[in-house]
Amino acid sequence: MKIKYKKSMCGMVGLSLLLGGCINKKDETNGPYKDTFVRVQEYEGDGYVLRGGEEADKIAEEKSEEVKEAVREFFIETYKTDVNVHNIVGNVHGATVFVESTGPVHFYSSAIVSMDLSEKRVLDVTSLDGDIEGNIQGGLYRLLFKKEFQELDQYLSKIVSANAVVGKTKESLQNVGGSDYMTPYYYLSVPPDDEAVLPVYEAYLEDPDTPVSELKSLFSMKDFSAEDYTITIQLYMEKEQAEPDKTLFNQIQKDIKAMDSIPKGNYSIIINDNLINEKVDDGIKDNSLELSFPDSIVKE
């Protein structure tokens, strides 16, 4: 059977109901599930759920090889990008599939597989409008400014080594991250219609083997707005009972403002306690320390 590949728009009510993938993580708590929290060091995405996906989850597990192959073909045919499938989670009408790219343009993403639940067969593979495009463009931005991102990586590694904080596990990024360029300590979000990186993205789709130097020459600095490139630093306290560290929170803000060698972008900073909601992959709570829009730090 030929699998169909198509795009969807989350704002269209019919399609959003069909896909079951337009449910925001925050909205998951409105379903029948009770929030459960685990230590972030132990969280690998195992408890993640999508509302109403119990039946489809069982079928998707039975059809896992077919689902994986369909998703891989979708990324190859649509984006000329090979991916590893890390996790399959049932949704209302099929499955949400979490993937990670395998090439130098590194990003996490997801696809939505619609299924005929009564006949237990795969129908088509879709993606939310602009979602994967933005994920790839984030990976391209990181590739073009690799040195600057390495500076940010080194800084945050030192912060974690010198303080009682940790990041998310790599397994959780793989299994339920599903979006953007991500590390255990931060994630990058790029709007899919951004004119600065769009020529780079188009050249990549034309030829994924285009040299980085050529891709970088296509990046339009005149169209670049640092405010649109969101870099969210998110750390967790290492000890289970520890409250978020205000001194460290203020120090990171000060450091980010002073650093000139890190990527240009719009920086948000979050420090959570040690626990993460395993149902929705979210550690933000009432006691979290958060610097975000409109108070975020713009590095231009």
Quickly describe the structure:
33% of the residues lie in helices and 25% in strands.
Defining key terms:
alpha+beta; 300 residues; 33% helix; 5-stranded mixed beta sheet; 9 helices; 7-stranded mixed beta sheet; disordered N terminus; 2 domains; single chain
How would you explain this protein's 3D organization?
It is a single chain. The protein has 300 residues and is an alpha+beta fold. Helices cover 33% and strands 25% of the residues. The chain has nine helices and 14 strands. It has helices spanning 13-19, 54-62, 64-79, 131-144, 146-162, 170-177, 198-206, 212-218, 246-258, and strands spanning 4-8, 37-39, 83-91, 94-101, 108-116, 121-128, 165-166, 181-182, 186-189, 230-237, 265-272, 275-277, 289-291, 297-299. Helix 7 runs antiparallel to helix 8. The radius of gyration is 19 Å and the shape is flat. It starts with a strand and ends with a strand. Mean pLDDT is 90; it is low at 1-31. InterPro entries: DUF1672. This is DUF1672 family protein. It comes from Rossellomorea vietnamensis.
Query: How would you describe the oligomerization state of the chains in this entry?
Result: single chain
Q: If you average the pLDDT, what whole number results?
A: 90
Strand content: 25-35%
Question: How many E-type strands?
Answer: 14
- Helix and strand content put the structural class at alpha+beta
From the alpha-carbon coordinates, what is the Rg to the nearest angstrom?
A: 19 Å
Q: Largest sheet at a glance?
A: 7 strands, mixed
Low-confidence stretches: 1-31
Order of helices and strands: EHEHHEEEEHHEHEEHHEHEEEE
Number of helices: 9
What is the global morphology?
A: flat
Portion of residues within helices:
25-40%
How widely separated are the two ends?
51 Å
Provide the domain count: 2
